[in-house]
Each structure stands twice: as C-alpha cells, then as structure tokens.
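Reading group handout, session on sequence-to-structure problems. Before we discuss, look at one worked example. The prompt was deliberately terse, the way you'd type it at a terminal:

> structure Chaperone SurA

The input record follows.
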Amino acid sequence: MRSRLLLPLLCAAGFSSAAFSATEMLDQVVAVVDDDVVMASELRERMAAVNQNIANQGAEAPPEDVLIRETLDRLILENIQMQMGQRFGVRISDAQLNQAMGRIAAQNGLTQEQFAILLEQEGRSYTEIRENIEREMVIQRVQQGNVNQLIEISDQEIENYLSTEEGQKLVQPEYRIIHALLPISSDTSDAEIEKSRAFCEGLVQRIRDGEAFDQVMASVPETYPFTGGDLGWRKLDDLPSLFQEVAPTINRGETADVFQSPSGLHIVTMADQRGGGDMTINQTKVRHILLKPSEILTDEQARELAVELKARVAAGEDFGELAREYSEDIGSAAEGGDLGWTSPGQMVPEFENMMASTEIDTVSEPVRSQFGWHILEVLDRREKDVTEDMRKAQVREFLHGRKYQEELDAWLRKIRDEAFVDIK
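And the output record:
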C-alpha cells in the first residue's frame, strides 16, 4: 500500500517549542508506521540530539517546522527498517556489540570502562548509547542484505573501468612516506653542503640500524633546522614530483640514500606501502576425510576411526575411495575428498597448520577442528600469481561502493512509499 502522508499542524499535536521543553507533557503517538508507532518522546530525544549536533558544528539551524518534519521522517524510515530486521531475524550478539563499543572508545583513546564513566560524567547514558549503536547495526545489516543483492558488477564493467585513466590510478600502489628536509640556501658553500650531507647520512644510518624516524629526528640539534613529516597515504601520481622517482625504489621500512634538490637535502623513509606490484600466494592442493562426532559416534571413536583410515591408506587402500565412503564433508566427499587448490586463510587454523606441516604425497595425523576429525593428504604445492585477480577485486569493490549509495537511496524511497504511515 502506498504511504498515506498526512501533514497536519504539528503544533496542534504538541510540538511547538514550548511543548518540546515542557517536561510534564504526556507521551503520545506521533506516527503510525505499519505495525509499530513513533512516540513523542522519541521525537523529542532525537530533536535534542539534532539541535546539539547543529550547535556543535556552529551551523545555522533550519526553521523549526522543517527540522521537526525531517527528523520525524528519518525516525519513520528507521522504524520501517527495524521492523524489517525483526521479520528477518536480524540479531546483534553481545560480543559484536561489545566490539563496536570498544572501537568507539578506542577512537577516543579510552577503554570501554573509561568511556562509560565519561558518558555518565557528561550526563549521557552508556546504556542508551549502546542501544543506539545496536539499532544502527541492525539497520545497517538490513540495508546491506537488501541492497547488495541489487548490485551486479560484470567482468566487462571491470575491464572497461581498468582501461580508463581513473581505473589505472585506482590500482596504482599507495605509499606512506616520512620525509625530512634540511634547507640549503643558494649561497651555501660546497664545504658546508658536504658537512650537512655527512650529518644527514649519519641520521639515515641510525634509522637503518633500527631507531625510529621520529626519535632520530627529535635528537637533532637546533643548528640543523629540519622540516617535513608524514605525507600520509598517497598514490604515486599524488606524490610530490620529487618523490615519484624515489618511492618505487625503496621497500616498506627502508630509507633511501640522502639526495639533494634545489630545496635542500632530503631523508626519505618508506613507512608503509600497499597494492601494486606483483602479488603471489602459496597454494596447496589437498584432499581430506572429515569424521563428525555424533550421538552414535563419540569424539574419541571419531578420532580412532581417523587413525584407522590413515593406516588403511598406508596399507595401500585408495584415499579417494575411503573419502567417498566415510567423509561427512558433503561438499567434497563425492569428489574423493578433493578440496582443490587452497589459499592462505581459506581453511580453519587447525587444518591449515596441519596442511603446512605435511609433506607432499603424505597423509597427515588426525587433526581436530570445530567441524570434527580430519585426515588430509597433500597432493601438491605451488606459487600462484594473483596480481590480476587482486586488481579486479579492488575495482569490483570500488564499483560496488559507488553503486551502493545510489541503490540504497532508491531502496529507501521504495520501502518508504510501500509502508503505511499515518502522521498524527
């Protein structure tokens, strides 16, 4: 049903400035939204937060009736999504919520306990903040679950984007350079320049020997007026031209030789870098047999069966045939336990550790994971160049993000139009 949006005089419903400040005002319904309602108390609380944000930003607030209408509409839209979350069974675990609260506290340089105390000192409720974060997380999951399925990125789109100048720049490596410049004036003698160069080379050596860049530069006497600092993450084309030749020649953690420009003598350290270049990963071709403990097979019995199957393979029986008969991994049993080529991080840690320590053409000892008991056979190992795969994945993620907001806006309009909304 298309929404029925009524816009009566909000003041008649008790939303004048005076009404907002009247603590004795009774709570009441301000909007019916499908199977739920928005209460006056919710609107008052959100209005207070919106006005506080506007004041903190030093911005000019819109007319009050406009602000009330916009705030109420946001609450209605959130309410629709929360109802969808309830129908879809979206739940945020305590662990996930604690992690989110921990990140917020860490961003403020605090522990969760310190963050809670600070909020209470400011007259704000930690519990309410926690509930608001949970609400935001539920809404975000509802949005992602509905919008992501609307977005399709074809291989051709990726290829087309990679062929553009913008696409080529996207997949360029990024560098984080820390830089120090010792200015040299035009009338500085050659002898003084060489003395300064020798001093700079001594600093470079200290950095190469393991001292932190900041610590080394902090020890420099005032007679050497260095300037510079952290340039942050930058693509090669975004670096000052002076560094575009230097950056590709040094690896993460390395410091370039001292070099001179018209501005002076430079010390450059590659603090970090990401993307670009050739990327290879070690892959393992493996097959396995999974035995799951159950009501009729205890954990110890499952382990003993794994030991028995390993012995049968050693005696000459075919691993693949045993996997077809005994393995409870539905995805691989019919293929003789073959998992194909696996990449780092693809398997659970216990499986990966055993796989890494098992020789080619060898069956491992039984290993326990969260899924049950495994024996595995390593068939081969190789290095695989994933440079192109990583480049395409980077472009796919970028194009997805660019489409996401557009699709989200359209989806929000759609669910708003389809909801029953009666503003009192």
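Points for discussion. First: The longest helix spans residues 387-418. Second: The longest strand covers residues 372-385.
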